[in-house]
UniProtKB/TrEMBL annotation, chain A:
Molecular function GO labels: amino acid binding; aspartate carbamoyltransferase activity
Pfam family for this entry, one: OTCace_N
Protein name: Aspartate carbamoyltransferase
Pathway(s) the chain acts in: Pyrimidine metabolism; UMP biosynthesis via de novo pathway; (S)-dihydroorotate from bicarbonate: step 2/3
Keyword hit for Transferase: yes
Keyword Transferase listed: yes
PROSITE patterns: CARBAMOYLTRANSFERASE
Gene source species: Marine Group III euryarchaeote CG-Epi2
TrEMBL record, chain B:
Cellular component annotations (GO), alphabetically ordered: aspartate carbamoyltransferase complex
NCBIfam families referenced in this protein's UniProt entry, alphabetically: ATCase_reg
Protein name: Aspartate carbamoyltransferase regulatory chain
Domain Aspartate carbamoyltransferase regulatory subunit N-terminal per the UniProt entry, residue ranges: 6-96
Free-text remark on how the cofactor is bound: Binds 1 zinc ion per subunit.
Gene field: pyrI
Domain of life: Archaea
Length: 302, 152
């Protein structure tokens, strides 16, 4: 049995297989075709921390494949507060279902769960740690939008220090010979423990204008107000990293903008209707990618 | 060598930890809490050695080291050698080795790691590099080098 705790658990071959299968499952994900691939199977969604997007896309994916879901959306109603350990909770839930999606505020929670569970554990985000299905759907979106994953030039913009999505994604893209451009204020730069692991080419930049024309993909993250002790600092920095349609005049026509959402105002709404905007399709892509993963883990299909 | 032997008397029964990285002897004493045990301990610092330029040596009377102590010692001074002494003779020689996974003896520095927040979970680290000692928490992935390791 295979758990998916970290994107490192998946080699390139398995990633490409999942992305290919996700592409085949698109008509089912959109509801255009019906499926009973996972009929009679049950997925547990255990969210010890709220996350609407991840939970709903997993539940949608499971139900589109004919399966059903049980679980909880936040821990206040569970025995967690009565002092039950995560290990005990996972053993119990594993007995009720064929796979478990776990979201937890502590790093390493999914790894611990995988050590005690009788059924596959899928990490739906553990604190500041891993969120492998987010990385998979980011990779899928890039592949669908650009047509390939290899040898691309990908810019990452915004909060690169605390944004775990860009950490995992840059490590995953590095395996596909991507050239990475990290664009952020100095205080929110990509941490060394991430860049130390990169084997390919990467560079850091303070502003986007000079390099925008080179990029195939621009991955934007939200700069969070709470990272700045001073509100004026926040406004200045956030303003400097805002993207609008005027700025995109220099971009390649096929350049795509991704964003893990929710966005605040780092991407101006006047971009939403341009060909560059891929972030809403990216959010939808969580469904086919998670379908492919659920199918593989629950049916044991390669 | 004979000079060294004269400085501190041979022990009848116990353990001689030899070839400790110079300057590390006191740390080994502290972390293994050897001075807390009710036996005579000798610590030699900066002894001239054939293999290394200098080394530390610890002699512990009437006591042998257990597996956990040897694992800790391996992390503190990977080239140390443990001699078990019985009736003034070396009854056994153990070269110590850092195991591929280090369980229960090292604290994870990440306060938000699940291993620091759940009853009944032991810490567990993977050995990444022996040469420049580096270990990684198998739960949260936090990496640590030799000087940042905290023992439980």
């Amino acid at each position: 049995m295979k758990h998916v705790v970290s994107i490192e658990d998946l080699d390139n071959k398995r990633i490409m297989g999942l992305l290919k299968r996700a592409s085949e499952l698109l008509p089912i994900a959109k509801g255009e075709k019906k499926s009973d691939i996972l009929k009679g199977k049950i997925l547990s969604t255990c969210f010890f921390e709220a996350s609407t997007r991840t939970r709903l896309s997993f539940e949608s994916a499971m139900q589109r494949l004919g399966g059903s879901c049980i679980g909880f959306a936040d821990p206040s109603a569970t025995s967690h507060l009565k002092g039950e350990t995560l290990s005990d909770a996972i053993r119990m839930v594993a007995g009720y279902s064929d796979a478990v999606v776990l979201r937890h505020p502590r790093e390493g929670a999914a790894k611990l769960a995988s050590e005690v569970s009788e059924v596959p554990i899928i990490n739906g985000g553990d604190g500041a740690g891993q969120h492998p299905t987010q990385t998979l759907l980011d990779l899928f979106t890039i592949k669908e939008e650009i047509g390939k994953l290899e040898n691309l030039k990908v810019g990452m913009l915004g909060d690169l220090r605390y944004g775990r999505t860009v950490h995992s994604l840059s490590q995953a893209l590095d395996r596909f010979n991507t050239k990475l451009y990290f664009i952020s204020p100095e205080s929110l730069a990509m941490p060394e423990y991430v860049t130390d692991e990169l084997t390919g080419e990467w560079s850091t930049h303070q502003n986007l204008e000079n390099i925008l024309s080179e990029l195939d993909v621009l991955y934007v993250t939200r700069i969070q107000k709470e990272r700045f002790p001073d509100v004026e600092d926040y406004k200045r920095v956030a303003g400097a990293y805002r993207i609008n349609s005027e700025l995109l005049n220099n971009a390649k026509p096929k350049m795509r903008i991704l964003h893990p959402l929710p966005r605040v105002d780092e991407i101006s709404t006047d971009i939403d209707n341009t060909k560059h905007a891929a972030y809403f399709r990216q959010a939808f892509n969580g469904v086919p990618v998670r379908m492919a993963l659920l199918e593989q883990l629950i049916r044991g299909k390669k | 060598m004979s000079d060294n032997l004269l400085r501190v008397q041979p022990i009848r029964n116990g353990t001689v930890i030899d070839h400790i990285k110079p300057g590390c002897g006191r740390k080994v004493l502290d972390i293994l809490n050897l001075s807390g045990s009710d036996t005579t301990i000798s610590l030699l610092i900066n002894v001239q050695s054939k293999h290394q330029k200098r080394k530390d040596i610890i002699k512990v009377e009437d006591r042998e080291l257990n597996e956990i102590e040897i694992e800790k010692l391996a992390l503190l001074s990977p080239n140390a050698i443990v001699n078990i002494i019985r009736n003034y003779a070396v009854a056994g020689k153990k070269t110590i080795e850092i195991p591929p996974f280090i369980s229960e003896i090292v604290q994870c520095p990440n306060e938000n790691c699940i291993c620091n927040n759940e009853r009944g979970v032991s810490t567990n680290f993977k050995l990444l590099s022996k040469e420049n000692l580096q270990i990684k928490c198998t739960y949260c992935g936090r990496k640590m080098e030799e000087d940042s390791i905290n023992f439980i």
